[in-house]
Every structure is written in C-alpha cells, then in structure tokens.
Amino acid sequence: MSMPNLHLAVALDGAGWAPDAWREPDARPAELFTARYWIDLIAEAEAGKLDFVTIEDALGVQSDDPAQVQGRLDAVLIASRVAPLTRHIGLVPTATVTHTEPFHISKAIATLDYVSRGRAGWRVQLSPKAGEAAHFGRRQVSIDTQASIQDLFDEAADYVEVVRRLWDSWEDDAEIRDAATGRFIDRDKLHYINFEGRFFSVKGPSITPRPPQGQPVVTALAHNDIPYRFAEKSADVVYVTPKDAADARHIVDQVKVRHVFADLVVFLEPVRSAAVLSDARVFTGTPAQLADLLLAWQEAGITGFRLRPGRLPSDLRGITRGLVPELQRRGVFRTQYEPGTLRDRLGLPRPANRYAAEGASVA
Amino acid sequence: MPKQIHLAAHFPGVNNTTVWSDPAAGSHIEFDSFVKLAQTAERARFDFFFLAEGLRLREQGGQIYDLDVVGRPDTFTVLAALAAVTEHLGLAGTINSTFNEPYEVARQFASLDHLSGGRAAWNVVTSWDAFTGENFRRGGFLAESDRYSRATQALETAKELYDSWPADAIAADKASGVFLRHPDAGTFRHTDQHFDISGRFNVPRSPQGGPVILQAGDSDAGREFAAATADAIFSRHGTLEDGQKFYTDVKDRLAKYGRERDSLKVLPAATFVLGDTDNDAQEKARVVRRQQVSGATAIKFLEQLWNRDLSAYDPEGPLPEIDPDVSDDHIARGRASVRMHRDPIATANEWRQKAEAEKLSIRDLIIEVTGRQTFIGSATTIAESINHLVQSDASDGFILVPHVTPGGLDEFAGTVVPLLQEKGVFRTEYEGSTLRENLGLAPR
C-alpha cells in the first residue's frame, strides 16, 4: 500500500450543515434536544469505524431566522452523555474559550477522558461576536483591527496553555494511598502551574488527576495566517478548508501541525438540496467520487478529513454506508477498530508530563 | 397516610469521613465507581445522586493536604455520563455561583436536564475567598456579605433564561418550514448589582423547566436564600430536637415568599453504620471512626483550630496547653471546618475540659468532636429511626453519605430500604419521570 490509511471524522451540527436540512424526510428536528438523537448519530458514526466525531457548539443562537434550526445543547455534556454508550469512537466537543474559564474546561475535558476511557478531544473555539459577549456582560470583544484579532488568538493560546498545564499538574502516579503514613497522595507529584499571562493568571493544580491520555487531543479550525500560528502552538489536529488539491498542498506547507484535516461539507446522492454558504468546499456527488477527491487531497499532504454532513442523518449514512465501504475496498480505511485511545488511533504518543520531566532534571 | 421519605446518595467526598484505606475502597475518579453507586441508589429507588465540587485543593501549613482523598472529576461531566446508565435517578451537582457566569451555568444545567430527561438538580453554593479565586480568570473575591446577593441574582438570572423559551417554542414543522414558532424565543435582558447581560439564551425549555434547586447554607442569609428560591435544603441538622427546630424555622420562612410548606424539602446529610445487631453496629462504628481519624488526621484537625503547627504533639497524648493563635493568618486554607469555630479560644477551653473530664487523648477527643454518625444500629433500628425523624418533622428525608466508595450503600439498599418500603413510607417504584415529580414538587 503506497499511502497510509487516512483518518476520517464527521462534524455534527443540529440537523446538518444545510440550513434547510431539518426539513428532509428523515430529519428529526423535534428531537434535536434529546439524548436519543445524539446517541443514534454517534452510534452510526461508530458503526462506520470513524476516528472521531466533533460536536458543534456556541454561546449564542445560530441565527435569527425562524425557518432555521435555533438552539443547541452544551457539546461537552452531549459527548459525556454518549460516552458510556460507545466504545471506540473519539468524542471531540467544541468549547468556547473567549468567555469561559480554563480551569473549568480543563477538568471537564479531563473528565470526558475518564468517562470515555481515553477517547476525549476538544475543539477550541473563539467567540468574536458582540452578541455572545453581551451574554456575559464582562468585556467587549472586537475584531476591528489585526491587533484585536491577534489579541483574541493570543488569549486563546494562553487558555490552551493553561488547560494543558492543568492536565499535567498531577503526575500519573501521584495517588499513592500509603496506609502506613496515612498519605493519600504524594504531594510532591502535584504541581502549581503558576500561569501569569497578559489576559489572566491561574494558580493550579487541577482538581482532577491527569486524564487517561495524559493530554486529550486538542483540535482547532483555521482559515488563515493568524489561526495557523495559533494551531501550530496549541493544537494536535488542525481543520483547514482547501478549495482544491493545489490549495491543500499550499496549506499543508504553511501550517506545521502533526495532523492537517481538510473540512468538506458533504452531500451524497440523492442530492435534493445543496444550498449552503460555507467556509469549506461543498462536495456533492457519489461516494466513489468523494473517495477520489479524498485520495487526491491525501496525496497533497492532507492526513485526514472532517466531513460535515449536509443533512442528518442521511449524509452521515452516506458516509458510513457509502464512502467508508468504498475506502475499505480501496484498502485505505480500517475495517475494524484497534484497541487504544484516540491519541493511539491518531498516532500521537502519550506525552510525558512536563512537570515530572522537570522534577527528573532537577533530581 | 404517613409522610413519604425522600432519600439521596452522596458520593463519598474529599474529607476525612471518606475511608480510603479500607480494603473495600475503590477509586474516587474512575467512572465505574460512580456508575456502581448511582445504580445501587437507583435500584433502591432513591430520589437522587449527589456530587460535591471543589475548585482549589485544600492546604494546611502551606502545603497541599494529603491525608484525605484528594481530587475529583468534573461535576457536570460525570452527571451527564451517569444519565446514560440510569433511568430515573435525579442527578444533583454542586456548582459554585461565584466562579461561573449565569449564561453558561444555566445552559449547562438546561442541557443536563434535556440529556437526562428531566433529572437535573443544582446545589447552589457560594465562595468568596481569594484563595479559590486564584484558579479563575475572574480572580479576586466577593465580600462575604455579597456572596448571597450574587448567588440570588445568579439564580434569578438563570431562571429568567429558562423562562425565556416558551414550552411550545419549537414547531419544527417540515411542511410549513417554520422551525421556531416564537421567533424571539430566548430573548432576555437582566441588569442588577452583579450582572448586566442581554441577548438570546440558546437552550430550549427543558423537561423540568430548569433544574431542581438545592441549597446548603446554614446562616440566616443562607436560610433566607433557601426559603426564597430553593426546592430542597441540604442541612446539617439530623437529630430530633435540632432537626425539628431547623425544620420549623425554614418552613416558617416560606409564607413570606408566598410558598407552601411542602414546596421546600428539608434533607439533612447523614452518615450511617449498619450492623447485625445494635451492639455490633456500635462496635463497627468505633472501628470506622478510628479509620476516619488517624493520629496524623487528629493533629491536623487540632491545628485547624489552634492555627499553629502542632506536629510535635503526640496524638495519643493530652491537648496542648498553649492557646490558639487568633490572628487572621489561618494555617488551613480551603477547608470549611476552619470557619466553624468563630471563637477558637473558647472552643479550645471546652475541648480541654472535655478531654480532662473524660480522659481523652488528642485523637480520642477529635473522634468525639468531629463525629457525625447519625444512624448506628441494626437495619431495623435505623429504619425506625429514619421514619421517626421524618414523621416527627425533623426532616423530609436524608442525604446519605456512605464512608466507602463505591460499595458503601449496598447494605443500606439491601436491608434498610425494604423495611421502609414495608412500612409504606418509601416508594417501591418511581412515581414520576422527572426528579421534580419524584420529590413531590409542583412543576415550574
């Protein structure tokens, strides 16, 4: 086999990425806010042996148009709700960094890693919207200038740094339960992170011990230079939006992240509607045509794909029951899950604890 | 018809009640432990499962406290996962109102309520200390006097957000193309001393119309807050006389807010030790108390009152003759127990007199003064005692705190619960599908 197996994720959002997807015959728009809906979708993705799912989220409504889906549940909690009912698929909820607390997100994603036994990731999202800032009433957010955009991303980078330090703030073997001395932990293996940055400071250590993966998988969507630099500093997986194979090659040259996943909005036949305004390229066609495109882009250096089903559940089924068998026939996609964590699946080693390493170098 | 008892299970927590050194003690972090305790509680038809929260590791003498269980997973995340492995059990979590913003915490609880089919409950607590604040970007702290005003306003704001979606807002009518029947669903504006926010809430009305509200404060302000806003109060008053006094006090406060006496459930926390006979249980309780209070733990407890390093003292010896240091600089940080002693010198004198009169060592004394075991006895004794307290209006039920994770509720579920069911004072099947219904509360 000339090419390594490709990685495949799906991005789940409401009834799908098309604004009118909820009106499709097999759409379940009245169930978008039930656990059953998300369990069924993610079970379908797992039956397709996909690497992971991402779950969209935001701190505001999607639109003001009563003809479109409005409202959504907290993505971290959806992922957690589904975790005990799945065994293999990675669970990557979106969580916003602009108005939230790194201490809370750190323990939430760490805990998702515990309840899923090593399958947690996180899609880091910024909120540049004035409307979302008004939901918190604590600050104004501006993206009027390059400097203000840079500030938002610098803040996000500090946020991820804090979260990662908190994940490392307990060494893996900190819990000792030494009945002889009465000590539950070896406190020398817990570390204050003492983060002091331009935007905030956080003391640590975390309340939650280091999660099973050590560091859950951090992912981010990026469209141009400032976010590319952010992704290089902060993410294990970056989602990018190439127009074609040449553009994909160009992007791969620009962004140095272990995994560069291309985003595509996907409508698999039968296509009734493909009316969607998108940052990512919109694909419409057959599973075989999509497989051709993926392999061509893989040739250009893309290591994986995050497919955004235009309509749920129909285009998700098109992926799991059409595209996946096609890729399996071509020998470029797994036919069964190997045991292991999400990091294992992505070929990312379990990272050494930065503080344990520090201690060792001092010793 | 006798009053029906409400029971909840508290996952053993980060304090010396929890015995981690017992060979039966499992993980306090691994999800299996939470599943085991929650499923036991559900099989026993308990009202809800309760999870506490911590936002800064406790310290003593400038070091992380290491003698008790340290560390816990995230409250929301565990409760959402437990919704997958239970069907009826309420899922209650402590979430601090100081270090969370109303929009975010309201959408997390509304999400949990949707994802659990109407089983969410919020134990609203407050913090005000800069010590905890050091872990948060909002940093700083509240004046202690402001903490309930922030909690009250945070809760009011959350309720406004829940009510901003009419129950029938979502039409999802494929034929007409109308998704939202009320295009302005979620619109809100809230301005008060602590919050100035506006926009649109993005979670539709949840099955319970918002989580059940629990409250745990015991001060006058805390009781008033509970009377005004809570559905259940988590008290420390579990004995007959003390319980009745507390029960009457908080229920009397309800009328002022136009509320019925039954609209606020009083649920004291209670530990228990079961034995084949009462004598057997007493003997077991003595063993448990010694597991809970080692010599090292006794010295650390004493240091919290004395506000001094007492590591040179022998836990099996007499109390220190030196007086507590009453300067503000507390030796212990992040510990609720420290704040319980408003006059340390008076408490120290009481403890010395008690130790002398009863010939108690430091460890014996700490075992005595920190003892919280409400129920010790055979299953019959405990069932009768619980029922008596509830029928005498000392409480509406109990939040049980087992001392071992995760099997600490097994014996209670297997022996005491059936006796209560035989008496007709505890359900044999869940009455409703939501926690609010099971607690006998009016819909909101």
TrEMBL record, chain A:
This is Alkanesulfonate monooxygenase SsuD/methylene tetrahydromethanopterin reductase-like flavin-dependent oxidoreductase (Luciferase family). Transmembrane segments: none annotated. The keyword Metal-binding does not apply. Residues 29-256 form the Luciferase-like domain. Signal peptide: none annotated. Keywords: Flavoprotein, FMN, Monooxygenase, Oxidoreductase. InterPro entries: Diverse_substr_monoxygenases, Luciferase-like_dom, Luciferase-like_sf, NTA_MOA. GO terms for molecular function: monooxygenase activity; oxidoreductase activity, acting on paired donors, with incorporation or reduction of molecular oxygen. The keyword Nuclease does not apply. It comes from the Bacteria. Pfam families: Bac_luciferase. FMN binds at D57, T94. Belongs to the NtaA/SnaA/DszA monooxygenase family.
TrEMBL record, chain B:
InterPro entries: Diverse_substr_monoxygenases, Luciferase-like_dom, Luciferase-like_sf, NTA_MOA. Keywords: Flavoprotein, FMN, Monooxygenase, Oxidoreductase. Residues 21-392 form the Luciferase-like domain. Coiled coil: none annotated. Transmembrane segments: none annotated. GO terms for molecular function: monooxygenase activity; oxidoreductase activity, acting on paired donors, with incorporation or reduction of molecular oxygen. It holds the Pfam family Bac_luciferase. FMN binds at T94, Y148, S219. Belongs to the NtaA/SnaA/DszA monooxygenase family. PANTHER family: ALKANESULFONATE MONOOXYGENASE-RELATED (PTHR30011), C2H2 FINGER DOMAIN TRANSCRIPTION FACTOR (EUROFUNG)-RELATED (PTHR30011:SF16). This is FMN-dependent oxidoreductase (Nitrilotriacetate monooxygenase family). It comes from Paractinoplanes abujensis.
